Amino acid sequence: MVSLAQVKNDPEVICYIEMANCHLGEMGYTDHSFRHVEIVSCKAREILDGLHYPPRLGELAAIAGYLHDIGNVVSRYDHSQSGALIAFHILRRMGMDCREIAMIMGAIGNHDEGEGQIVNILTAALVLADKTDVHRSRVRNKDFAKFDIHDRVNYAVESSDLIIDPESRTILLKLGIDTKIVPVIEYFEIFMVRMMMCRRAAAYLNCQFSIVINEAKLL
Fold first, then answer.
1. Is 6 helix (H, G, I), strand (E, B) or coil?
2. Residue 21's CB: how many other CB atoms inside 10 A?
């Protein structure tokens, strides 16, 4: 069975992730480097492991998380779909079972909040892991005077934790936001669509998604 370690050490994967992040940097997007895909990969596995899904599903979720933004090497536009196709060729070359490839393709192809749908367990884990990676360390722009709204909101987030409680079937995003940089309402103005997708993803896993910002429950 193809493992996450094999995927992470593949020269083609390494190249595409590096170049995709460079392309997004030229367009002014936040960090999508190995830092981001490592976090998403780990969180996706932790979600399924925490909810006691089979370990192989956790491994597949981790692989989907690691590859989910690889389509940005082509274009930001429709990067989910192009990423799914790139992942298909890489994973088939590695000899992965076609059903596992299909699950990963479905997850990657549906992780964007614009048109994505929760089509399987891997998609749900990937969406929750990806959309909750909000933190000031993702901001590339070092000139605060030139921050756009996405830069300001990400930079305002000083702490971010995703907490899985299998007993109560809850998935909690706990944020610490510096309200001197942005008011809490700006977070929801930017990320409401993403948070609604997280609610659908959690529901697919028979869980409830909640957000606590500065110790106040807001969703």
1. helix
2. 22
